[in-house]
Amino acid sequence: ALLPVVEQVLEKAPGARIVVNAVTPETVAELLQCRKRFRFAVWEMVQVRVDTFRAAGNYHMPCAGNPVCIALMQNPQRGEDGL
Question: Residue 64: CB partners within 8 Å, gap ≥ 6?
Fold first, then answer.
């Protein structure tokens, strides 16, 4: 469960920059819940995929890798951005 972990991080360090890697749709859904609940000033998510290539005779064939989502969440510390 991601929500309680993020909540504890924010209690101890309100301006912490939190980075989470997600490989399942369920984890992505939890990240979206975090965005809604904590109303981060900064919230970004990117999805990346790395493919490998293998020899296939005189050719090279790509082997698809699974995508990974990387999310960044942060609120400004007190005193920054007028807070």
Answer: 49, 51
pLDDT tens for each residue of 23-75: 999 999 999 999 999 999 999 999 999 999 999 999 999 999 999 999 999 99
- Yes or no: say if 14 and 80 are a contact pair by the CB < 8 Å rule: no
Q: pTM for this one?
A: 0.80
Nearest of 28, 49, 43, 32 to residue 73 by alpha carbon: 43
Whole-Å CA distances, 29 to 11, 40, 53, 60, 80? 22, 16, 31, 36, 29
Q: Is residue 80 part of a domain?
A: no
CATH, residue 8: 3.40.50.150
